[in-house]
Specification:
This protein is of the alpha+beta class. It has one helix and four strands, in the order βββαβ.
């Protein structure tokens, strides 16, 4: 899903899993959350609601 900031920039955000929320912020520049999400699904999403956010200009 897309999230619009107060200045009109759209950022991509995805939520999956269950439990306490955990916000994943990727490194950069030019990196995105999909590669981490690929590996974290089996490890983290059984106990946490993962929130994957692509920062401005990435993803």
């Amino acid at each position: 899903m897309n999230f619009a900031t107060s200045d009109g920039i759209e950022l991509y955000i995805e939520k999956s899993g269950r439990g306490d929320p955990c916000l994943y912020l990727h490194g950069g520049p030019g990196y995105w959350s999909k590669s981490f999400q690929h590996f974290s699904t089996k490890l983290l999403e059984d106990t946490m609601e993962m929130v994957y956010l692509d920062q401005r200009g990435c993803g």
